[in-house]
Amino acid sequence: MSIQQDGAKIVTAAILGFDFKRIVVNDVSYVIKPPTIKTIVAATYWLTEIEDAETIKGTLQTLNSLDNACRALSCFIQGDDGLWEELSHGTMTEIVDGLESGFDLIDIKNFLKLSALMKSAKRLIAKPK
C-alpha cells in the first residue's frame, strides 16, 4: 500500500469510528479509542516511574506499580482512573498490553516526547531550585 492509501485508510477509519483497540483484562473486554491530549496527560501522570527502553512495550514493562499501571490504563479506557480497582484483578501482562494498545494509537514520536517531558518534570519535583 502506498503512503497515500495508508493515509486515506486512517482518515476513513477515524470518520467511521473504526480507529479503536479492543483489549481484555481479567476476561473483561474494554475499548480504547484514540486518546485526547487530556487522556494522554491523565494516563502519563500515573506512569512517572517508567524507564527508557528500546520499545514502548519494553518501556512499559519497567513499571513497578500495578495500581499505577491500572490507573493509567483506566484513563485510556474511560478518561479517568475510576476503573483502576476493576483492572487491578488482571495480570501485569494484560495491563502492559492494554497500555501498549493505548499508546499505539499515538504517534511514537509524541510518546517519546511525553516520556522525556515526564522525566524532566520528575527531576524538577525531586530537586527544586
Distinctive features:
60% helix, two-stranded antiparallel sheet, globular, 129 residues, 2 strands, 7 helices, mainly alpha
What can you see in these coordinates?
- It is a single chain.
- The protein has 129 residues and is mainly alpha-helical.
- α2 (37-45) runs antiparallel to α4 and α4 packs across α6 (92-104).
- A hairpin with a 2-residue loop joins β1 (21-25) and β2 (28-32).
- 60% of the residues lie in helices and 8% in strands.
- A two-stranded antiparallel sheet has the order 1-2.
- The model has no long low-confidence stretch (mean pLDDT 80).
- It contains seven helices and two strands; from the N terminus they run αββαααααα.
Q: In a nutshell, what does this entry contain?
A:
This protein has 129 residues and is mostly helical.
Structural category is mainly alpha
The count of strands amounts to 2
**Number of discrete helical segments:** 7
Largest sheet: number of strands, sense, barrel closure: 2 strands, antiparallel
Shape: globular
Residue share in β-strands: 5-15%
Relative helix content: 55-70%
Radius of gyration using CA atoms only: 15 Å
